[in-house]
Amino acid sequence: MAIIKFDQYLDVSKYWARHVDVNALTGRGEESSLTSVANQLIAEKLKIAADSVVVDVGCGGGHFLLSINNVARRIGILPLQEEVQMLSSFYENEKIEFLKGYSHSIPLPSGLADRIVINGVCLCLPDRESFVATATELARLAKPGCKLFLGEHPESDEFTGRQYDDSLVHFLLWSVKSRGIGYALRHAYRMLQALLGFSDYLIYPKRNYFTVRSEVAEIFAAAGWSLLWDADRCLPRTEAGSKQVMIRHDYLFERNTD
Ligand SMILES: C[S@@+](CC[C@H](N)C(=O)[O-])C[C@H]1O[C@@H](n2cnc3c(N)ncnc32)[C@H](O)[C@@H]1O
């Protein structure tokens, strides 16, 4: 039990997989109800037929795959062996396959998928090059006419204005100014609990990969996808008792027939 600082999102996932917390693997913290709202939207947009092969890339806690139980094949791709092991044993009575892979390198044959989901994943990518490689790899995996839901992608750096680095004192001062005294006190309490050895206090990476909408459409068009729909998604969040609203963007693409 300690204060733990993460520089990489993959290390955060490794931590939660070891602590067997499927809700934390969604990255939505205290707002687990947001996961079912997100899953309903994804299912509504993808219109999944019973004979579909569905691949969820970066499937987090596996909640979306669990929610669509009447399909031919459900496959979750996760970058860490720890996550694959944890979800395979957590869902051992479900017919869901979990495989280790990355959005730019998926261990499945070309032209397999009827539906692909990649939700809240591309913000973890290191750079534009990986995003381009992801668009190309998803196109390889897709059958012609396959629908792809790319969700919760930021259009801006969500950490702008947070100049507290990894200093807990600077973080608390920033919290008082921008979130209020109640929020700062609740974080201070959690930090104290970690220092006394009762729980862990996690310091998350302070960067996210972001792309403006026109560039997302361009990159995916170049990889063989047509944009069918896109919209802002409002993500209300509760963190240490404080309500915040974050806007990210969703896209629905269709794989072109070559
Ligand atoms: C914020 S969670 C979102 C989980 C889930 N898609 C959802 O919407 O609830 C990010 C997920 O992406 C995975 N991930 C991170 N980098 C990845 C990459 N390069 N390729 C595939 N998955 C990745 C993480 O392991 C985690 O499962």
Quick overview of this protein structure:
With 258 residues, the chain is an alpha/beta fold.
Question: If you had to describe this structure to a student in words, what would you say it looks like?
Answer:
By secondary structure, this protein is α/β, with parallel strands linked by helices. The protein has one domain: Vaccinia Virus protein VP39 (Rossmann fold, 3-Layer(aba) Sandwich), CATH 3.40.50. The chain has 8 helices and 9 strands. The chain has helices at 9-18, 33-46, 63-67, 81-90, 128-141, 168-178, 181-195, 213-222, and strands at residues 3-5, 53-57, 73-78, 96-100, 113-119, 142-153, 201-203, 225-239, 242-255. The chain has a 7-stranded mixed β-sheet with strand order 4-3-2-5-6-9-8, sandwiched between helices. The chain has a two-stranded parallel ribbon with strand order 1-7. Strand 3 (73-78), helix 4 and strand 4 form a beta-alpha-beta unit. Helix 1 runs parallel beside helix 4 (81-90). The radius of gyration is 19 Å and the shape is globular. The N and C termini lie far apart (54 Å). The model has no long low-confidence stretch (mean pLDDT 91). Bound molecules: S-adenosylmethionine. S-adenosylmethionine binds at residues 9-10, 13, 25-27, 35, 38, 57-60, 77-79, 83, 102-103, 119-121, 124-125.
